Amino acid sequence: RKEMTKVRIAFKTLGDDEQVPPTFQQMRCHMVYDVKMENFQRKARLVAGGHMTEVTSATMTYASVVSRESVRIALTLAALNDLEVKTADIENAYLTAPIGEKIWCTLGPEFGEDAGKRAIIVRALYGLKSAGASFRNHLADCMRHLGWESCKADHDVWFKPEVRKDDGHQYYAYCLLYVDDILMVHH
């Protein structure tokens, strides 16, 4: 139930009189169950059968991540300049991004009273070929909207000038992105 509450945003349920657009591909979705080894927490995730769709171009499926060297440089910079290092994880990250593919499915029993209805997938559901790239592009748009700039050497290192209140000098805050994990280095 917890997973279905979160994932529901990825589906636009069609009415009985609505037709699936002819350019959309059908796909099945299924539940994947897991137990985390560190705390034996049970986990369930609804995923799309992305292997069932037609071949998708690399530009739609490729999602870059911050390089190991950039992480090392950022941590060295933090250690040498007594900067704060913070980390975060974006929960249900892919579901925040609009989808790049045209996919529909028949809803399964996990959808309760909507089981058997047709739905268009409107968010980057785990398992879709374009989900990683869709989320990466969405996150980059969010970063730009918040005033961050992407580094030319590593597009997953973002920086933003900030003025320190105690001495009035300008410094840079750095944000490193690895899929749905964030490393922040700042004063």
General description of the model:
This protein is of the alpha+beta class. The chain is built from four helices and eleven strands, in the order αββββααβββαββββ. Strands 5-11-10-9-8 form a five-stranded antiparallel β-sheet, sandwiched between helices. Strands 1-7-6-2 form a four-stranded mixed β-sheet, with no helix packed on it. The mean pLDDT is about 90.
Helix content: 10-25%
Helix/strand order, N-terminal first: HEEEEHHEEEHEEEE
Helix-strand category: alpha+beta
- What's the assembly state of these chains? single chain
Distance between the termini: 41 Å
The largest β sheet comes out as: 5 strands, antiparallel
Question: What value does the Rg take, in angstroms?
Answer: 20 Å
Mean pLDDT: 88
Number of helices: 4
Q: Strands across the major sheet, in which order?
A: 5-11-10-9-8
Record field, number of beta strands:
11
Strand content: 25-35%
Low-confidence stretches: none
**Global outline:** elongated
